Amino acid sequence: MREGYEGTGPGAITPDGCAVELYSRLPVGDEPDIIAAAVKPGARVLELGSGVGRMTHALLERGFEVTAVDESPEMLERVRGARTICGRMEEVDVGETFDVVLLASFLVHAGDVEVRRGILRTCVRHLAKGGCVLIQREGEDYHTDVPRERVDPAGFTVRIVSVEPVGDGVDSVHAEYVFPDAVWTQTFRSRPLDRERFEEALGEEGLGVDRYLTADGMWVRAVRADPGQR
Question: Does the pTM exceed 0.90?
Answer without folding.
Answer: yes
